[in-house]
Amino acid sequence: MNEVTLLLLIKILLVLLVVYWIAIGISMFYRRIRMRRLAIIEETFADLVSRYLYNDPENPISISQINDRLKKIGIRPGNRNNIQYLISLMIRTQRTIIGSNFIKLQKLYGMIPPYGVSIAKIGSWNWYRQARGIREIYEMNQSHYLDEVLKYRNDKNIYVRREAQIAMVVFLGWESLRFLPYLKWNMTLWQQIKIVEKLYDLYPQPDLKWLQKAYETDRSFAKRLLMRIIRKFELHSEIDYIMKHLTDEDYEVRETAIYCIKTFAVSRADMSFIKAEFDKIPEPTQQLQLMNYIFENSDIDVPFYLEQLYGPNEDIRLSVAEILWNNGHKQKVQEFYLQQYPNTSMHVG
Amino acid sequence: MKKVLVIQEDLIILKILERLVNLNNYSCKAIRSLNELSIEDQQNNFDFIISDILFEGIAPLQFVAQVQEILLHKNLLIVTNMGQDKIKQEIFALSGIAGFYAVPIDLDEIDATLKAYNE
Q: How confident is the model over B83-106, as pLDDT tens digits?
């Protein structure tokens, strides 16, 4: 490499450095302007909402005044970023308030500019925009778009159908369970938990009619979701559904059934049923989990435990031996171990 | 005129509460943090302080203790996003808390409290 080439390289690097600095400067300048704009939008929106919720009879604010002020601060159809920011403020505000002011807010949201932007997003080819549009619709409680949103409950994209399913719960509550048997895609554990929590937050009063209708489903995820609902709402009258699935052929359904039954204390008759079903569970790990539940929620049933003590699985035998040993039946455990060595004489010191 | 101090970091809640207080014929000072307090404010005896408890750099209980220590007041209402039972119990364990409202809030309850005090 000669001197000329080296100088040329240094010059190129210097130019690149200067371009880089200019870019940083422009970006900082833009960011400052943008932050100032967002602060103005937030301040104006806060002022408008407060005046709308608590309208001064001497100086009332009208919807046209609200729309004019929003337009002045840059809430226009062409400026999507500003509109998006306004929507996020609207959602934030709506989450903060309940009671009569919540209804007032919904009324206001139906009359100010961003109205219609979220539904337009649903038609986008981009899954992220679709999911975001659905989310905005249910967050802002625009229930008149329910039919549009329902179409996406079986969408091939997991995020789109996830938001659509949550929207169903938000708008329809317990009635949304009627769609459960017809959902085509698997529902992740995370999604099940979100649905249960949403239902619990928005519709704390159970409507068993829709729950019981959904029992007809044969889909694994649907059975798991229903059991989680029974657990969350502590529906003692519906425990039979959980008990029925303790011996389901699907591993995950059994796992959820065992997890959910742990929330409930069952009657003697139900406990007898669970004990009778115990041997039908094909997985020893799950049997052990259920064994712990039986031990913690019923009296020591010696014949049941002895049957398990002489059963085929080493881990279960060990667990049962521990239960019997610690609960006044040491002799039974000693007998069990001694019968394994029939030809050995005891050496007692 | 009776005086109210509103301390909320969230600008929207701050403005709504300020408006609610003003319409109930109170004189209202609305600020986003304790740093915005003037010396005159600290000499006032507020009829109500309506405050959040979640602020940068200070634990919720410490914040409440600080407010109680530096500001003269008759009633302290907490309006906050931190509505967990544990926080609520800890706040009520402190003396001098007149009310605790966790988000989402029904502003009608605060409205009724202010009206009842004004009568």
A: 888 888 888 888 889 999 998 899
Torsion of CA A192, A196, A202, A204, to 10 degrees: 160
Interface contacts (A, B; CB < 8 Å): 57
CA distance, residue A99 to nearest chain B CA (Å): 5
Is A46–B107 a contact, with Cβ atoms under 8 angstroms apart? Answer: no
DSSP 8-state symbol, B46: E
Q: What are A172-189's pLDDT values in tens digits?
A: 999 999 888 888 899 999
ipTM over 0.95: no
3 state SS of B100: strand
- For A130, other C-beta atoms within 10 Å of its C-beta total 22
Whole-angstrom Cα distance, residue A165 to residue A163? 5
Measured between CA atoms, the residue of chain A closest to residue B21 is: A54
Q: Which of A43, A50, A102 sits opposite B16 (nearest CB)?
A: A50
Neighbouring C-alpha atoms within 13 Å toward the C-beta of A336:
20
* Residues of chain A contacting residue B107, judged by C-beta atoms under 8 Å apart: 53, 97, 99, 101
Nearest-angstrom CA–CA distance, A95 and A102: 9
Question: Which domains occur in chain B, in start order?
Answer: 3-118 (3.40.50.2300)
